[in-house]
Amino acid sequence: MDISELLRLNLLSPMVLAFFLGALAVWLKSDLTFPEGLYATLSLYLLFAIGFKGGVELSHTSVQAIALPALATLLLGLLTPVVAYFTARRYLRLDEANAAALAAHYGSVSAVTFLAALSFVQASGHRAEGFMPTLVALLEVPGVILGILLARRASRGGRLGEAIREVLTGKSVFLMVGGLWVGVLSGEEGMKKVEAFFVAPFQGALTLFLLELGMVAARRLADLRRLGVRLVLFGMAVPLLHGSVGLVLAKWAGLSLGGAVVLATMAASASYIAAPAAVRLALPQANPSLYLAAALGVTFPFNLLLGIPLYYATALRLWG
């Protein structure tokens, strides 16, 4: 599959088209609004479904199969926030708090980008390992905690303990880990009972969720124009670097091509659910426009449009 086919496959997927439809609605000043209750419901559904399906797969996965991928994911969780922090300090010349806020977001993971990578891999005829949602949970937490620790090293302020509790009990981590637990215990027998609700409707729910995210991202473009082109370049260069490291570690851990693309995309993504909640609590002096505009306005659409096909094309070469 050449790069033009990869781009066509990605650009014409219902999820990507829905994202840009949402952005178009904002640019055209449409009266389209997304009910708050529906948005929250879709978030809960997607997060639990990710964990549950992963737990079912994990129920018949050996410890030996997941040990190295889990170690590679933890290494990513420690490395990526440090890279993002020092890049933000040196290149964007941000203070410690704002650089640490960006580090927390780019060290954590976007669950929706993870889902988009899974959909892309499946549409490409490959299959990622079933325990990938476990790796999402492993990558979600260390990045946020390390980002906050980096800020405290300099400012010696902020409520670290409360922020860690916020991350661990926040809905994204709690629902995914809880879904994993339910899936592991109920196994394939449990899946058969709820398959009609958690498998077939999943892609449709994700498409609607991306319609809303397109509207949110379009509203953040004003922040990007104010903060300048350097933040835009940061939001594209850091994911490429993190995604490359993710591919190398995936190769070392023995993941399949599909699993490698998903892990690289996870490393390249930036959180906009768990990290903002934790950062707002622990680093109240950081500017939300800065980290939300970079994560949601630049990195999310960049990965959706170009990043995932690029990680896939690179993996094709590395995996032969």
UniProtKB/TrEMBL annotation:
Does Transmembrane appear among the keywords? yes
What species does this protein belong to?
Allomeiothermus silvanus (strain ATCC 700542 / DSM 9946 / NBRC 106475 / NCIMB 13440 / VI-R2) (Thermus silvanus)
Q: What is this protein called?
A: Sodium-dependent bicarbonate transport family permease
**What are the entry keywords?**
Membrane, Transmembrane, Transmembrane helix
Its transmembrane ranges are: 6-28, 66-87, 99-118, 130-151, 163-184, 196-215, 227-249, 255-278, 290-312
Tell whether Cytoplasm is among the UniProt keywords.
no
InterPro entries in UniProt: Sbt_1
